[in-house]
What does this fold into?
Amino acid sequence: MFAIAIHGGVGVREKTEFEKNSGLEKAYRDKLGESLSAGYEKLTRGGSCVDAVEAAIRVMEDSPLFNAGKGASFTSAGTHEMDAAIMDGSTLNAGGICTVSSVKNPINLARLVMEKTPHVLLSGEGALSFAQEQGVALMPPEYFYTERKWQSLQQRLKEDIPYGADVGDPELPPALLQGRPEPDEDKFSTVGAVALGKDGNLAAGTSTGGRIKKRPGRVGDSPIIGAGTYAKNGVCAVSTTGLGEKHMTLLSAKEIASLMEYMRMPLEAAANRVILEELVEIGGSGGAVTMDREGHIAMPYTTKGMYRGFVYENGNIVVQIFDE
It folds into this structure.
């Protein structure tokens, strides 16, 4: 038995936007399906769960639809700083990178950190120097430019929207809310994957451009092992999305694993408790994709939807966005 599950973040677009543009929803569903197919192909051909996680995430990093790689959000300075991590549940080895620019596929670099260095996390210029040493594909700043996210940043800067807030946040002055939709997708849309290989090994990975309008140098939960990414054989694999600062203080990914390992909670109960209860109690929001040693999957989220999907050894790809 083997399986892979993915998420493209909890920042889903409004249903009305999809209704007006059916091609847009199809684009998301097709790309999620492509991501699952890439991971599934690795698993069917004898690749490891780490191979599958990396391949699935790379597909989403190459798409401007998500907040990772090509579609990474802008910092308050109008730059891109990306984070990613990957973890092998069979060894507890992990690798991550943060505040990195120019790297086409941050998840590739994170894996190289895991396999080619004695470290777990490299940042900024040090990570970029390592990428150059390893021959990782680099791209110019314009590769990461997306008009929608640039305009969203300009709006937030002009109207001084607080970091982390929706443009449609009910706590903002009414004058800023009139006629505005709530563009959650401009804040979230981190991508991630968890996989169970034929050998019973588990792996997890996460990649993000970070919160829009973040201060340069800010690091979120995605590259932090135990916060946004975690995998341990015999227990579970987890990748989170949402308000990174809260996932970091809660250590959401490890919290789910700990509830399972030490409290003997089943996967769905543990994931729901952390995401739907503990995260909300500290003012957070978001979601997670999780998988246990038997291939059970739980994908809780606190928002109106989450780009997500899964496929088992039978090859039947399932893609979901809202409550489906």
Residues 22-44 form the longest helix (23 residues). The CA atoms of residues 246 and 284 lie 5 Å apart.
